[in-house]
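Inverse folding, one chain.
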């Protein structure tokens, strides 16, 4: 995917339903510094959340704890998150999810096939069950069956299955928030695709 597939900063910002804040207070400066240092850019959703700093602080604390969960294979976790984001239609989460996994050195070779997983032959049986479950949890109302849960509990163990379910719920929160506010791809994936000069 080339960088020209992404909207310009002006186009992206015009689509957001809440202005991206230009707050220049100390907390906003710290958020901007950390975001640029960690991700190379200030996250658009952080700029939206700066309109309500207590929510931003709570989200940052929660996401810090979520990042420490380790009972589920990171690859399966990523596939589940991307399946949920894809079904909801959150291009911001799809873009950032690819970047986050790539930045940690994780295998991203199957990610572009996630929206088409039913027709793709690149996924293992366990990955297919994870993708099917992520979609079943994400649709409204959820369509999870006892058979799905039983198969995944056998695949992942009780703790892995609980983490998978919560991770999908967390991604639903992220994707629904970002989509509802009109946040779109920031071009993070493109930075992964750039070849060193």
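Residues assigned per position:
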């Amino acid at each position: 995917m080339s960088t020209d597939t992404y909207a310009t900063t002006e186009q992206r910002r015009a689509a957001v339903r809440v202005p991206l804040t230009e707050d220049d207070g100390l907390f906003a400066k710290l958020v901007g510094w950390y975001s640029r240092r960690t991700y190379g850019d200030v996250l658009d959703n952080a700029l939206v959340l700066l309109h309500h700093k207590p929510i931003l602080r709570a989200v940052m604390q929660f996401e810090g704890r979520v990042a420490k969960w380790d009972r589920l294979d990171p690859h399966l976790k990523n596939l589940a998150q991307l399946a949920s984001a894809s079904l909801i239609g959150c291009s911001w989460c799809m873009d950032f999810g690819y970047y986050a996994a790539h930045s940690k050195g994780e295998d991203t070779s199957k990610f572009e096939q996630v929206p088409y997983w039913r027709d793709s032959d690149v996924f293992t049986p366990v990955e297919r069950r994870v993708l099917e479950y992520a979609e079943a949890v994400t649709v409204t109302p959820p369509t999870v069956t006892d058979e799905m849960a039983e198969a995944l509990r056998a695949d992942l163990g009780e703790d892995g299955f609980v983490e998978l379910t919560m991770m999908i719920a967390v991604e639903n929160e992220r994707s629904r928030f970002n989509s509802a506010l009109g946040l779109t791809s920031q071009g993070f994936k493109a930075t992964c695709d750039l070849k060193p000069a």
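The chain has two domains: 7-67, 74-180. The chain has a mean pLDDT of 93.
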